[in-house]
Amino acid sequence: MERNASSLLNSTFLPTQLPFSATSGPNATVKPFSVFDGCDHQVEGILFDLTLQCINVVLGIPANILVIAILIHNRKEPSTSDIFLGCLAFMDAYFGTMTPVSFLNLYVWQSKGVWSAIKFSYGVKDTSGPLFLSCICLDRFVAVLFPVLFGQLKHIKYRLSLSIVVLCLTFAYSAAKVVGGLPNFEKVFTGEVLATFLWMVVCNLSILWALKKSRGTGKGEMHPVKKKAFKTVLSILCIIVFNYLPPVALFPFENYYTPDVFRCYVQPVGFAFLNLSSTIQPLVYLSRLEKVPFLSDACVKKCFLCVSAKDKKTPPAENPPAEA
Fold first, then answer.
1. Domain coverage including residue 212
2. Cα-only R_g, the chain
3. Which of 59, 125, 132, 317 reaches 20 to 30 Å from 189, CA-CA?
4. How far is 19 from 25, CA to CA, in rounded Å?
5. In which residue ranges of the chain is pLDDT below 50?
6. Residue 160's pLDDT is what?
């Protein structure tokens, strides 16, 4: 969206500030930049978003780098979704590195050029996350519900082509976000997040239904591989609901809020949940792995104590390598 929650922190301190409508009209006076963009006395939502972005710096960046290293380590035996996961992890790590840059620009550099780079990173986050998650959901949807078609489309060239399309859409959206001034541009993100959210929910529910329906006879136990896939898809569905439901539930009702309330509270809170996905997604992926390369078992136990304890209780036959 044109006014990303984090775009509220977008410039230098200035002693005066024009009213909200100061920029309306072709000959209107340009509104001066302000650190809180008119929310100087309503900073709670902004601080909430910044707190979660700090979590991305502390946990998200190392986790995403580790995911990329694991995908490279397992490149000889890749899963079909690895290229989507790698792109998503790279974009999330890039987004996390821009948070300290944003702080430095706010209080040290105060550069409009740097701010344009920061704004570009918000466009990358707005677009790459939903689209690459949708690609992962599509890959698993075809694999579970249309296995014959999946076998015909298993070549990496199809996923590479789809990744290139997603990257082009991401960079086009981000560039337009930097330029600004496009009519109704903020509705692009609202439409995108609504469409991808509905697709991912329907897709994952269909997969869960198909896997649940395919229980074997006798004891009624699900096949170990399908059981693992069921848990994987269920975890993705939880991520989707937690990270994307707030903006989906709030942003379409922009006209019901006053401009100040929407800009200072609704947007920051909605984007805060979406931005936190940069940490949650890699941690969930790592928690599903039976063995995390490059890390000792003691380190893994400290990071994922509950998950590790649960996995160790499960027989090895029921824990094939995760097709994340």
1. 5-318
2. 22
3. 59
4. 13
5. 1-28, 35, 217, 306-324
6. 93
